[in-house]
Amino acid sequence: MEMPFHLKTLPAEALEILRFFAGHNEAVAQTSAMIDSTGLNERRFGVALRRLVTKGYLIMDGYQSYRLSDNGRRAVEDLAAYDETAPEDTESADSRIVTRRLVLVTPRALLTGQPTNIYAGFEDREDGEYVEEPLNLLVRLQVVNSADDINPNKDSAMLLDNKTARQVFEISAGTYTKVRLRCFVYQIENEEDPPMMAGGMYVDLNVVAEPENADRGLTAYGVDVQFLVRE
């Protein structure tokens, strides 16, 4: 028996969570019980759990508690039927976590109403953090107290391989004394599912009205971001 297509689109960790529910006798399960049973680390579990929720297989039922939807119960039944007929040596598609350093480069201060370039990108990979295929990412820069508060989000697609990569965003500060920049990175595994939040950061910058008071020297901020890679 071939695995149903709707299950093939799920990461291996999500299938393990569905298998947990197949042997769970209660309608509601705590996340701690799921983690203990599947042996997944928190990062992998979180990614898989979000996928099951966005697919409509799991529904939140209180703090750190989830239950199967009708579609979820059917998915559990389909997976159990597949597991019964699959060869014993058949294993779910493996996956791993890769970590890359997200860097945000900004001036030390912004000038009111002055268009300014902000750089968001990734450093070279560390040893062992390689990818066979480029990661399909969405980089979002959100500007709080910008000159354009009607549309504060600036999105840019990025294909991240094993080398450095960067995107340039142009922003303009409003008349406030500070601006907050939020940079979020989303991973897109396929077009059918919504992007998954991989990580991000924020920085606060001073805003000045007089050019002579604007420190235009650049400063870099960094944070580690983790991505799920399927083998």
* Structural class computed from helices and strand pairing: alpha+beta
| Secondary-structure element string | HHEHHEEHEEEEEEEEE
Provide the CATH top-level class of the largest domain: Mainly Beta
What is the CATH architecture term of the largest domain?
Answer: Sandwich
Count the domains: 2
Kindly report the CATH topology of the largest domain.
Immunoglobulin-like
Helix content: 10-25%
In total, the number of strands is 12
- Share in β-strands: 35-45%
Give the distance, in angstroms, between the N- and C-terminal Cα atoms. Answer: 22 Å
Strand order of the largest sheet: 5-11-10-7-8
CATH superfamily label of the largest domain = Immunoglobulins
Structure summary:
The chain is α+β, with helices and mostly antiparallel strands and about 230 residues long. The chain has 5 helices and 12 strands. The protein is elongated.
Structural key phrases:
231 residues; alpha+beta; Arc Repressor Mutant, subunit A; 12 strands; elongated
Explain the overall architecture.
Helix 2 crosses helix 5 (70-85). The mean pLDDT is 88. The strands form 3 sheets. The chain has a 5-stranded mixed beta sheet. It folds into 2 domains: 5-85, Orthogonal Bundle (Arc Repressor Mutant, subunit A); 95-230, Sandwich (Immunoglobulin-like), CATH 2.60.40.10. By secondary structure, the protein is of the alpha+beta class. The chain has helices at residues 5-8, 12-22, 31-38, 42-54, 70-85; strands spanning 28-30, 58-60, 65-68, 95-107, 109-111, 116-122, 135-144, 153-160, 165-171, 178-187, 196-208, 218-230. The relative contact order is 0.18.
